[in-house]
Amino acid sequence: MGKKFYVTTAIAYTSRKPHIGNTYEIILTDAIARFRRFLGDDVFFLTGTDEHGQKIQEIAEKEGINPKEYVDLIAGQIRNIADMLNISYDKFIRTTDDYHVEAVKKIFNKLYEQGDIYKSEYEGWYCTPCESFWTETQLVDGKCPDCGREVKKTKEEAYFFKMSKYQDRLMQYIEEHPDFIQPESRKKEMVNNFLKPGLQDLCVSRTSFTWGIPVDFDPKHVIYVWIDALSNYITALGYSPDKKGELYNQYWPADVHIIGKDILRFHTIYWPIMLMALGEPLPKQVFGHPWMLFGEEKMSKSRGNVIYAEDLVRRFGVDAVRYYSLHEMPFAQDGNITYNTFISRYNSDLANTLGNLVNRTVAMINKYFDGVIGDNSATGEFDDDLKNMCENAVCNVVKKMETWHIADSLDEIWKIVDRANKYIDETTPWVLAKSNETLPRLKAVLYNLAEAIRIIAGLLQSFMPATAKSIAEQINAEDISYESIKKFGGTKQGTKVGTPKPLFARIDAEKMLEEIASESEEKINIAPFKDYCEFNDFEKLDIRIGKVIECEKVKKSEKLLRFILEVGSETRQIVSGIAKYHNPDELIGKNVIFIANFKPRKIMGLESQGMILSAEFDGKLTALTTVKDIQSGAEIV
Fold first, then answer.
1. What is the average pLDDT score of the chain?
2. What is 214-237 written as a DSSP string?
3. Which residues lie closer than 8 Å to 182 by C-beta, 6 or more apart?
4. In terms of pTM, does the model score above 0.85?
């Protein structure tokens, strides 16, 4: 075996079934793992699920089941999606696995015993979806700075990790290992936004919920997500503070953690510091990939713009989903997906360009030489260009894959595909077939095309494994290994090709989009209904009519509008985050509905004396108004 290569995804949080934006990461990591195996490396590929936390406990309670039953369901869905997408993971870890639970307890104990963890009290703002604590100054418009959702005031006893103790050491490590955080822009973000301003000690236990790994010596505490979830990268290899397993000794440190850019802080600051405290080597690199957006927006159930992998696979097939996901994501910028763009890319790249090349070549070998590949001794003027393109592309793909430029690697492969299609037009096999004198040249042309296709099949194995296998079978290629494709000419003379079969059937875009629209109309996505509440709870809210007499955008804010409402004989100022969805002029004179008995609070330096009610659908907000004009100040009952 070649050199060891350990690669991981972030473990998927089991709060809900993942959409294609979440699933992109495991497809990306699988392509990297497969390519390193292709090069001959000894690869270990880890993925799995993160299964503890307050959010999961709350969801399970709403579903009327215990948290373990709930995470079993979601973890099963996540693993099924990975298997459906032909993901070649070596291990699938769950943070509820017994060996992981025991190792995390020992890690926590070790850090406590050596003085890196201490007990104190936390008071601040907590975002349940992000599992994150924030100070008052870190909030944006009173909400979570990461996801924009509501936060809750929290005060509880907790254990803390001394992050500041290791700050200088981590800064020095990053300076001495310039490739540790990739891309470069992410490194600058971590250093400038988090390390240089100074690290706060990290809350690493909770008492306000029970669904987590208990602290051995203080059972009312559960170990908070970061020590629990991040430790999976070593516990999966058999690590425990009192014993290091064979896999750990063989594969750690990881060669690269593949993670989303939104959790970069946890993997490039918290995780390295944890490892430093444990006395273990740091991963060689952390790559924070961009997001896959729906058009220009982040996918969200509440916006109704979620696309699931199984729906794409059902319509387009596994390898088309893999190709689009890998090709349409730039190295350091967000990519996007819509059904329109997917169909367009499918038809142009897969059906027309790749599919036609293979189909035409195999069909011509069958037609002109009874399916037998001849020799290529009768050379011509375009041959060297095709050969050079193939050999250069192999070298370029290796170079680009070393730096995780996956989309660029696919572009290199498609350079061969495009050059081979052009070669057909240049050499005109159908003309060569008309004369016995040009048959030797025709044999050479078809040999060169078959060889180019063999090299394409070899390179595609990491990205589109089923397609690569189908291509190899159609030209009856015995060897599509890395060593065999580095030099042009590995196709054996006398090989009998198979029957041409379409790799990708062209899609009628208009018909497909109509079918998708029809399905979407049948399944309109609305936010889930909340739990029942008592009528007394509703009665506590003072909901009123306010007539808008002034409305303007708040300076230095893209989200906020400042309202002056007439409420009976008085006026009220309210600041509302609906500037993206309403022109201020269209609201003046309208009756809006607002909650009048929320305590006033400061937003962007302005006092807001209530909250205007809006309806949200498809990611857009609409202020609620009345059908008829009504006296301002009227109470909603």
1. 91
2. EPTT-TT-EE-HHHHHHTHHHHTT
3. 285, 286, 287, 288, 403, 404
4. no
